[in-house]
Amino acid sequence: MDDFELTPNQGRVLAMIRDYLDSHGHAPSLREIAEHLGLKTHSSAQDYVEALVRKGALERASHHRALRLPQRMRVPAAASLPLVGRVAAGTPIMSEGNIEASYAVDPALFRPRADFLLRVVGMSMRDAGILDGDLLAVHRTPSAENGRIVVARLDDEITVKRLQRRRDRLLLLPENPDFEAIEVDPRRTDSFAIEGVYAGIIRRS
């Protein structure tokens, strides 16, 4: 385990930079960090980067994109996943204000790789094995195949349902006969968006 202490938000920024380095071979720009994590300004991303450098979680080389992990961290390591709480109207789901906590869970344990956790409220997906109080691991993506369990935003409310496409409309289907399907007009991009797909669950005893 690393011997520096990070806040939950600093941990999110470090995990994003680590994944980007693994995928691209170089560090993301401040703009990419800000957009990926829903930060309001590039300066917020800069502040997090500087804090991570001060704490020794990142090293800086000759120019602003030359961030790198310290040698002792350049091996696969368990990261953390942010827990998204209540989502404020009009904000990206991963915005700072929406993050309730951070859990030391390796995102690579899930398929597809998880980007965040969401606490399940209610029993509408009971028959899919998703129960009230579970932590749903979610892979962040704006699209999903027919039949996938998705996390969707409806008028700034977040719901977990199975996606079904029917010609020019979408249905969000529960997995419990006590609940009704939700019909969505896919042209209403102002009130509907897919935030991610189901990757797994964590059930706390």
Outline of the structure:
The protein has 2 domains: 66 residues, Winged helix-like DNA-binding domain superfamily/Winged helix DNA-binding domain (Arc Repressor Mutant, subunit A), CATH 1.10.10.10; 119 residues, Umud Fragment, subunit A, CATH 2.10.109.10.
Structure characterization notes:
This protein is of the alpha+beta class and 205 residues long. The chain folds into 2 domains: 8-73, Arc Repressor Mutant, subunit A (Orthogonal Bundle), CATH 1.10.10.10; 84-202, Umud Fragment, subunit A (Ribbon). The chain has helices at 8-24, 30-37, 42-54; strands spanning 59-60, 67-68, 81-84, 99-103, 116-119, 135-140, 149-154, 157-166, 169-173, 182-184, 192-202. Strand 1 and strand 2 (67-68) form a beta hairpin. The longest helix has 17 residues, at 8-24. The two termini are 25 Å apart. The mean pLDDT is 83.
The parts where pLDDT drops under 50 for at least 5 residues are none
* Apparent shape: elongated
Number of helices: 3
CATH architecture of the largest domain: Ribbon
Class by SSE composition: alpha+beta
- Helix and strand sequence: HHHEEEEEEEEEEE
CATH class value of the largest domain: Mainly Beta
Task: Give the total of beta strands.
Answer: 11
End-to-end distance: 25 Å
| CATH superfamily heading of the largest domain | Umud Fragment, subunit A
What name is given to the CATH topology of the largest domain? Umud Fragment, subunit A
- Proportion of β residues? 25-35%
Strand order of the largest sheet: 4-3-5-6-11-7-8-9-10
| Average pLDDT figure | 83
Whole-number tally of structural domains: 2
Helix content: 10-25%
Question: What does the main sheet amount to?
Answer: 9 strands, mixed
Radius of gyration based on Cα positions:
18 Å
